[in-house]
Amino acid sequence: MTTNEAKPKLVDSEKITINLGMIDLGQIDLLVSEGFYSNRTDLIRTAIRNQLNTHADVVRQTVARRSLVLGMHHYSRADLEAAQQAGIRLQIQVLGMASIASDVTVELALATIESISVLGALHASSAIKAALAERIL
After folding, report:
1. Which of 7, 70, 73, 110 is most buried when burial is the number of CB atoms within 10 A of its CB?
2. Mapping DSSP to helix (H, G, I), strand (E, B) and coil, where does residue 118 land?
3. What pTM, to 2 d.p., does this model score?
4. How does 65-82 read in b/e, with b if 16+ C-beta sit within 10 Å?
5. Taking a C-beta distance cutoff of 8 angstroms, is the pair 63, 90 a contact?
6. Percent of the chain at pLDDT exceeding 70
7. 100, 129 contact by CB (below 8 A)
8. Is the dihedral of CA 105, 106, 108, 114 positive or negative?
9. CA torsion sign, 123 to 125 to 126 to 129?
10. Nearest CA-CA partner of 48 in 63, 37, 33, 34
11. C-alpha to C-alpha distances, 65 to 53, 110, 119, nearest whole angstrom
12. Residue 71's closest CA among 36, 32, 121?
């Protein structure tokens, strides 16, 4: 991304929904009421971070083995036009967030993106997502 391009809006988090049994939920509420956590979300985020830390070596090894881009990667119209001019078809593999600029046309995306594999979130227009649906792994 060049410095004169508009940066994509950064997203701090994605909302997920989980179903918990009443006993688990009650135990979470008990720990919150006893002051161990500020709220349910705090406990759940802490539990997830602990599990991710437990498996950090596996994550690092898998990121390297699968050649994943770690973090956030933005694909601008200029990026895709440059790939098209070079005759390159992109195989997008991201652990985190991948975004495709809003001014990218469906035709340009189809011409330049061979596949998309995102472990996390893909931000693109609904038209781009629909056009690339068969290429999203």
Report:
1. 73
2. strand
3. 0.67
4. eeebeeebbbbbbebbee
5. no
6. 91
7. no
8. positive
9. negative
10. 37
11. 19, 27, 15
12. 121
Using alpha carbons, list the distances in angstroms from residue 114 to 20, 69, 136: 39, 16, 9
Residues in the chain: 137
Measured CA to CA, the distance from residue 102 to residue 32 in angstroms comes to 42
Quickly state the pLDDT bin for 2 (edges 50, 70, 90): very low
In this structure, the strands spanning 69-75 and 113-123 are unpaired
Q: Write out pLDDT tens, residues 56-114.
A: 999 888 888 878 888 899 999 999 999 999 999 999 999 999 999 999 999 999 999 99
Whole-number average pLDDT of the chain: 90
3-state secondary structure at position 116: strand
Question: Which one-letter amino acid corresponds to residue 98?
Answer: A
